[in-house]
Amino acid sequence: MQLPGGSRVTKGGKRRLAGRIAASGVLAGVIFLLPAGVAGHQDLGGDGVPAQESFPGSEPPQDAQLPPGQEALAEPEAVPGLGLTQDPVEATGTLAPSVTIQAFVRPEAERLRVLVRVPLGALREIEFPLRGPGYLDLDEADPALVAAARLWLADHFEVFEDGSRVGPALVEAARVSLPSDRSFASFDEAVANLFGPPIPSGTDLFWRQGLLDIALAYPIASEPSSLEVRPAWNHLGDRTTTMLRVQTVQGDERVLQFSGDPGTVRLDPRWYHVVGDFLRRGAIGFAENAHYPLFLLCLVMPFRRPFPLVGLIVSFSAGYTITLAASGFGLLPNVLWFPSLIGTLIALSVVLLALGNMVEVSFQRRWPAAFVFGAIHGFGFWFLFRESLQFAGSHAVPSLFGFTLGTVAAQVAVVAAAVPLMEFLFRKAVSERTGIILLSAVLGHSAWHWMTDRGSLLLQHQFQWPALDLFFVASAMRWFVLFLILAGVAWLLLGLFGRPERTAVRVGT
């Protein structure tokens, strides 16, 4: 039997190798078939329900069919035009279940104007003056409205100029609007509504059904490119969705929509701002999604020397960079099942690497696997990247460059931390071969359950054959071009890593 590197194995060595492979298979089978909670592949919440993970394809499909006999839970009844579910305090005890916030931001001369609309029912701990059966007393409501505007909105909207916080905010106006009011369709209409005549004081309006409109002003002294804002209004509800429209003096508008707290948002970013911001987003996205670090650990575990480590990171990064960039050009099919498919394949890649670590493997075989799996992971990275793309302004290419650079930096950090720990473990605790098998089995077990979970979601989708039209032909041509690009890069990598005399590395060496 010929091993990579030219060495041969005797009959006794063959028997030992076969025994190790059989033992590895038995151990992997036992661990993979353990109940999910035994190996701790999921964290259970206080009610025993598995916690949600941020994993491509983990969201339930919109076109999925429920099992027979199971009824869908009804959504809370919504009040038309409010963006707030009815009776929020009764529904959750404290927080409104869902709140929609509309806001405008516009720099003017020496001030930054911020217009905000939020449902009154989301503002807790404020005693609004009432009359009759619970109608808002509009004649006496102004002090409470100003207090609510400052406590729940202004104090949680931060403005930074050249890195320094600006403030405090001046509450220029606070006004109650009817649920049917549509003045926040544009900045000028919102200003006219805020500073125009109020609604008649005799209007019968239950306070929970009203909308609070406010105008804030922050003193500034520089151009918009140095201004950043942080709309941290996630405290208003269990789920908050903010539509923030950033306007320039010339009238140009950029619409941002996000959930929760987005962090700081630069109003008019330059390309170098975008690169730095997306470098951070790429690194955080890689680290926060457990399947990426686990894949990387399985990938490099048997190869802890500098040349193989660099080769594997380069191969993996090259693969996902190509498909990530291709996704930005609209390559992804517009079907609901594709994210679930990618999530399943990403989990499968971890399982296959874990199984491969339990037998003899060479770097010459591992780097092509890293490249192919990287191409699959690139679509998963796109699902993370596109959520943040709106914050790049017109700098799509710098944002893609920064995001990719951030993921590479995260890979280097994970490898730099994990390799010394594995070396210490293999010297002090267990033998290298035993340690690789055990670690691979644990990681593969987690990925196995991820794969089955995502696979079950994938099977709930309804699949239809595409129509054989010109659009299908154009899509097929784009995929063919992508395949040619991947083949060309693989050929280049073959010239770097494909010679056995330089790259053959056995597990445990």
Keyphrases for this structure?
4-stranded antiparallel β-sheet, 509 residues, 2 domains, elongated, 6-stranded mixed β-sheet, alpha+beta
Task: Tell me about this structure.
It is a single chain. With 509 residues, the chain is an alpha+beta fold. The chain folds into two domains: 88-268, no CATH class; 275-503, no CATH class. It is 47% helix and 15% strand. It is built from 13 helices and twelve strands. A six-stranded mixed sheet has the order 7-8-2-1-10-11, sandwiched between helices. The chain has a four-stranded antiparallel sheet with strand order 6-5-9-12, with no helix packed on it. Strands 3-4 form a two-stranded antiparallel sheet. Strand 3 (130-131) and strand 4 (135-136) form a beta hairpin. The longest helix is centred in the C-terminal third of the chain and has 33 residues, at 396-428. Residues 1-7, 22-93 and 500-509 have low confidence and may be disordered.
Could you give the topology of this structure?
Elements lengths: L10 H22 L55 H5 L3 E13 L2 E9 L10 E2 L3 E2 L5 H12 L3 E5 L2 E3 L3 E8 L9 H9 L15 E9 L7 E5 L5 E11 L5 E7 L5 E2 L4 H18 L2 H10 L5 H23 L9 H20 L5 H26 L7 H33 L3 H28 L10 H28 L2 H4 L6
Parallel strand pairs: 1-10
Antiparallel strand pairs: 1-2, 2-8, 3-4, 5-6, 5-9, 7-8, 9-12, 10-11
